[in-house]
Each structure stands twice: as C-alpha cells, then as structure tokens.
Design goal:
four-stranded mixed sheet; 23 strands; alpha+beta; binds ligand EPZ
Length: about 425
Amino acid sequence: MEDKYFIEGGHSLNGTVVVSGSKNASLPILVASLLTSDRSVVSRVPYLADVDNMLKMLSEIGAQISYQDHQVIVQARELQARGQLFQFAKTMRASFLLMGALLARNGSGCLPLPGGCAIGARPVNLHLKGLARLGAEIEIDKGMVAVSAKRLRGCEICLDFPSVGATENIIMAATCAQGITTLVNAAAEPEIVDLACFLNQMGARVTGAGSPVVQIEGGRPLHGAVHSVIPDRIEAGTYMLAAVAAGGQIKLKQVIPEHLRVVIDKLREAGVDVDEGTGELFVQAPRDLSPLIIATAPHPGFPTDMQPQFTALLATAGGTSRITETVFENRFLYVQELCRMGACIESSGDTIIIRGIKSFKPAQVKVTDLRAGAALTIAALGAWGETEIDCIYHLDRGYEDLEDKLSGLGARIRRVAEQAANL
Ligand code: EPZ
C-alpha cells in the first residue's frame, strides 16, 4: 500500500522540534551488539522502517530483541543465519553490515549481494577487500556473498574511498581479529565515532575514530554495553531547511551543533540566522536567501545526505546556485520532480545549476529515495497550494514521526493511504 502526503504550502514553521536518535548510528550499533553473547541496551533508537527491518534480521539470526520507548534490549546467545534473513536483507543495503559481525562471531556469513538503488550502483567491493585482508575467504555465487575465516588476523587496510559502510564492517570484524588492525582512509562520520564508542563500551579498543586513521586492537573479550545513540544530524538539518523554505523560526532540541558544522556554515552564508545553544539550535528564516556553491564530500565535508534538501531550498533563492555531487553517481533523480513544481535546474554530469525562481507551484510528485523525499517535502512546504507526494514509504525509512513533527510546527500535512486516495 503506497501512502501519499498532501501538503498545503504557504504556512510558516514556528516552534520547537525534538530531534530523534540517528538512523545511521543505530543500524551499525545494533549489528555490533551481536559481537557478544551478553545483553546490551541501546537507547534513543528511532521508530523507522529501516530500524524495524534490522531488528527483524537480528531476531532471524537468533538474537532476543525487545524494543519499547525507543530502547532496544538485545542479546544474541548464539547466531545462526536462517532462510528468512535473505528476504529482509534484499530490501535494505545496510544489512550488509551484518557480514563483519557474522564473520567475527561465527567465522562465516552468507548474505545477498546488495543491489543498487536510485542513487547509485552501491557496490561492496571495499567491504570485501577489507574483510579479505583480515583473512576471510570470499565467494560470490548466484547473487550471494559467502565469507569464511578460520581466524581473522589484524593488518593494515587502506580504503580506496572513505566508505562509511566498509569502515563500519571492517572495524567490527577487526575487533575479533588477532592483533592490531590499522584502517587508513577510514570514513570519519559522527556515526562511525558513535559505533566506536559503543564497541569500546563493550570492551573493544578502537582509537582514532572520527579521523582518517582508525586503529583496532583485536582479540579483546567483548561484553554487553549500555549506550544512547547520537542525534540524527540529517534529520536535524532537514528541519532547519524546512523552516527556512517555509519561513518562520524554529528551535531544535537534542541536537549536536558540531555534527552540523558545514550545514550551519552554508546556511549562514546564504543569509540565515542560526544560533547555537547547548544541545540546541535556533533557526530564523531570512527575507531573502543568497545563492550558494556546494560540493558534497565525505565527512567533515558537506554531507551528501543534505544535498537534495539544499537543492530544494536554493531553487527559490536569489541568483544562481551550483551543487556538485561527488559521493554518489546518480543522486539527482529528484531534480526532475522539483522541475515539475517549477524549479529551474539544469544538470550536467555531477553538477546542477539552479536558477532561483520566486516560488514553487504545487504539483503531483513522486519520491525516488529517502532524501529526495525530504527535498520534495521542503519544496511543498514553500509552494502556494496543495502538493501531492507519492511513494512516501521512502520517507518512513528515515524520518520518525515526520507528519506529527511538521504539523507541530504549523505545517498543513496529511497522510492518505493509497486505497483511500483512489476513492
Ligand atoms: C552510508 O551509506 C549512509 N547509510 C548513507 O545514507 C550515506 O549517504 C553514505 O553513507 C555516505 O555518507 C547508512 O549509514 C545506513 P558509502 P554507505 O559506502 O555506507 C562507494 C541515507 O540517506 N562505495 O560511504 O552505503 C559508493 O558506491 C543514506 O541515510 C564503493 O564504491 O555509503 C558510494 O558512491 C543514503 N564500494 C560511495 O562509496 C564500496 O564497497 C559512498 O558510499 C562501498 C562504497
């Protein structure tokens, strides 16, 4: 059943929004809990489709799970991959994070080779190269990847690209390798730091997380841990841009401004007032928005997960803006949907040129991926009239209580189930 959003734009956003726990920190941390047979408690885990899917996979593998009030209690006394796992794994790429944990805990793992998605081919060659360097035998056959290792041995691994998932997979496997592993050109996202923090609370010794060189002292006994997940910086950034696009002023609570340094800097460059408090951010929409030149990059550069949202915002800024996407090869699919709402955007290769228009026109648009959905929502909030947004299941993957949080700020947004919408 494909739900839709109907958003009546032209209403400013005002008030306070509480940021949820990070999806992209929760997923690897929940996987890391499999590295011990002890019980772990992970708090501030957001209610999202992707989290739900991951928890289903963990219980398919044999973990006992309980999940209430945003807190997951998980214990994997033993792991065994069963048939159902593949069904879940096919629907979510992040399932490939299980490979490192299965290899570390069981000495083997078998998962579907993740397919591509709307934003790119999304290969896992860097994950597999790292696991092979640690001593894993890898076999790919009929779309399945099987890895096995009698023992994992620490070593130096250099990543061709600072892949977030490969960094997470390798760190988790390396915690159970004999000896020291040094990961060079590692991803440095805050979610990597949060994973390392959880692993160290489990008794691992991971140093350098958040920098391009991470060292893991393997072979240490791992036990259960209690951890609270960091706030979702991309959710926070999305609400900041929504407030600027719709007009108004909002306060964000339970946010870490440091994780949004580049986003805050770019908003200020465009003329937006952003004040920082302890765990809080205040955003005041300006009368006029100045154009920007943006190039996405691995952290601490401009986050690719905020690229579509900035395109939606800059589509009604003054002058001409330019955005270059350097991380994914196909992350501009949403542009054609924005153009259906009147945006004036040309794309050539990895760059789009955005000529500011006065305001969006409402239209019926379709979501192609999670952050594209965020961009269309931001555009709809600023459009004069009612926009219909189809395939919002993509948004359910990454934004907890989106319509409640937006309505709480004054947006006119309603979710309609497919059948009802067709009546
Ligand atoms: C994580 O995906 C995030 N997902 C993505 O967020 C985010 O966009 C991405 O990191 C980059 O920041 C989760 O954390 C669950 P990558 P991941 O491996 O790990 C290429 C969202 O909206 N690559 O850093 O899959 C790859 O094709 C999602 O929340 C290889 O070539 O990203 C891409 O071009 C979208 N070989 C680039 O690296 C590999 O083995 C970055 O991918 C792995 C990656």
